[in-house]
Amino acid sequence: MPRSVNAVASKARKKRVLKQAKGFFGRRKNVWTVAKNAVEKAMVYAYRDRKQNKRNFRALWIMRINAGARLHGMSYSQFMGKLKANNIELNRKVLADLAMNHPAAFTAIVNKIK
Questions:
Q1: Does domain 10-113 have CATH number 1.10.1900.20?
Q2: For 21-91, where are the alpha helices, taking DSSP H only?
Q3: Which of the 8 DSSP states describes residue 29?
Q4: CA–CA gap between residue 104 and residue 102 (Å, rounded)
Q5: For 17-63, what is each residue's pLDDT tens digit?
Q6: Measuring CA to CA, which of 6, 54, 60, 97 is 20 to 30 A from 79?
Q7: Distance of alpha carbon 96 from the chain centroid
C-alpha cells in the first residue's frame, strides 16, 4: 500500500506560519524551519507580555496617583485608604487620568476625602 500524506493540510499549515512570519528579518520570514521557530518564540513572548502589560500599566497608574496625592500632602497609601473609607469607588486608571489631565477634579476628590 502506498504511503499516504496529507499534502493539503501540511501546505496550509506552512502557509499559515509563513504568513505569521511576515515582516521578520532574513530567513526568518521565508524558510520554513527557521520561520516556524521564530513564530513559536514570538507567540511565547506575546502571551507573556499580555500579562506583563497589565502589570506595567497598573504600576504607571500608581506612580501618577502617588505624584498627584503628594502634591496635596498625602502618600499614595493614605490617599487610597481614605478613598476606600469614604466609599469612593474610582479605579486606578480613572484616578491616574484625573491626576494627570484634570488636576482640578483630582483636587476636588482630595478635598472631599480630607
A1: yes
A2: 32-70, 76-85
A3: G
A4: 6
A5: 999 999 999 999 999 999 999 999 999 999 999 999 999 999 999 99
A6: 54
A7: 16
